[in-house]
Amino acid sequence: MKRRGSxxxxxxxxxxxxxxSKKRKMSDGGLRTVYVGNLAWSVGWQDLxxxxxxxxxxxxxxxxxxxxxxxxxxAVVRFKTEEAAEKAIEEMSII
Length: 95
Fold this sequence. Notes:
This protein is an alpha+beta fold. The radius of gyration is 17 Å and the shape is globular. A three-stranded antiparallel β-sheet has the order 3-5-4. Strand 4 and strand 5 form a beta hairpin. The protein is built from three helices and five strands; from the N terminus they run ββαβαββα.
């Protein structure tokens, strides 16, 4: 096992490529990611994706849950572009 920072990896893993490619993908996702709160517990990820696709192209939706599986009433939605995320915030804030 080798160590890089606080992470350990085996020599077989191509650690650098995997770690840094994930880091790059995550780094620009923040501006395209929108937190959605005050959802009904019955809302699923597909329901939210269908609603948000009217605003812009959706890459990912995650409805947040507690450890026991109950929904928290919130979610995160990642859009394809920053503009779509901004438009979602503007248009969906009034619903």
